[in-house]
């Protein structure tokens, strides 16, 4: 991996667990801005990959996954990761509009019809940023953001 390629895949022979490692490198500035959120997001993204591998591993009727593992996968993906990804998306759409981005460019980026992109952007423009959009821009309480950890955990 070099400084220009922040994502790398380490093949199984060289990986820590023998199956392959995904390496995402951050600059010092990026790491500082993300703070403790980096570890949490990495953990939840790992759960998403673990869930996907589990679902692909056998016939669902034959899967012998402990109940607490299903709970962890569902909770991490649905309750933790998805709301934050939606907040990041909403913040990106709002920032794109604020920086003069066109609806056509937004439609292309979202791979949707221009009318759909216009509608999604209008919905955001006509509403205040939600909790996870605020989190995406300001961070959690450790970064001085408005949302408390209890608020973020409660979503």
| Secondary structural class | mainly alpha
Mean pLDDT: 87
Number of helices: 7
Low-confidence stretches: none
- Tell me roughly what share of residues is in helical segments: 55-70%
Shape: globular
Sheet-strand content, in percent, reads 5-15%
Would you kindly provide a written description of the structure presented here, covering whatever features stand out?
Helix content is 60%, strand content 5%. The protein has helices spanning 28-34, 37-56, 67-98, 103-110, 114-125, 131-138, 149-154, and strands spanning 7-10, 21-24. The protein has a two-stranded antiparallel sheet with strand order 1-2. The protein is globular and about 50 Å long. It is mainly alpha-helical and 155 residues long. Helix 2 (37-56) crosses helix 3 (67-98), helix 3 packs across helix 6 (131-138) and helix 4 packs across helix 5. The mean pLDDT is 87.
Provide a concise account of the structure shown.
With 155 residues, the protein is mainly alpha-helical. It is built from seven helices and two strands, in the order ββααααααα.
Task: Label this structure with key terms.
single chain; 155 residues; mainly alpha; two-stranded antiparallel ribbon; 60% helix; globular
Topology:
Layout: E1 7-10, E2 21-24, H1 28-34, H2 37-56, H3 67-98, H4 103-110, H5 114-125, H6 131-138, H7 149-154
Antiparallel strand pairs: 1-2
